[in-house]
Write a structure and sequence with these properties.
The structure holds 2 protein chains of 2 kinds.
Chain A lengths: L8 E5 L4 E6 L7 E8 L6 E6 L4 E2 L4 E4 L5 E6 L8 E9 L12 E6 L1
Parallel strand pairs in A: 1-9
Antiparallel strand pairs in A: 2-7, 3-4, 3-8, 5-6, 6-7, 8-9
Chain B lengths: L4 E3 L2 E4 L5 E6 L6 E7 L6 E7 L2 E4 L8 E4 L6 E5 L8 E8 L7 E2 L3 E5 L1
Parallel strand pairs in B: 2-11
Antiparallel strand pairs in B: 1-3, 3-8, 4-5, 4-9, 5-6, 7-8, 9-10, 9-11
Classes of the chains: A mainly beta, B mainly beta.
Chain lengths: 111, 113
Amino acid sequence: DAKTTQPPSMDCAEGRAANLPCNHSTISGNEYVYWYRQIHSQGPQYIIHGLKNNETNEMASLIITEDRKSSTLILPHATLRDTAVYYCIVSNTGTASKLTFGTGTRLQVTL
Amino acid sequence: GAGVSQSPRYKVTKRGQDVALRCDPISGHVSLYWYRQALGQGPEFLTYFNYEAQQDKSGLPNDRFSAERPEGSISTLTIQRTEQRDSAMYRCASSVGHLYGYTFGSGTRLTVV
């Protein structure tokens, strides 16, 4: 599975959009981009995933560049409850079970 | 059930003892996964099942660790002859299929003393 690179931490003001970047320059054609987050000591929570098209759901939007070498998770109106560690994971359909979480980005939403 | 249930929530055991950790996935979820998470680190893959078949156990650290899911529902992760380095949060997740998101349980905090 391709490796991902994320900034270790980011801050965002409450009510503003949080844009979390992820580099995955070695991604291959059959690999999906997944995003999870982990709030404090809870279990990781699935957010969204995509292959090459941009995706949106009730939680977030996922923007994948045309060359698929990077992506951005967008939380349109961050709240204090969005403070968490966000993990960007790349995995192909055959081995999607083996999600490799890495260390993620710690997002701190502030007043 | 409504979510993935793990038991016990906390387990303290003496070094050398065997422990069994239980995971009850969401009803109807085909895939079940075990992860281990050390403090301050992301979850580390251990093994996974589709139905009752163990598809990948490459993440199990050594032969003291084993897992089973005999009827394709509840799974047990067993650690024999526990060591202090086994202390961690053990997390179970289930999924409808590999293209769908995982739902994680609250985990079992294992402490080996």
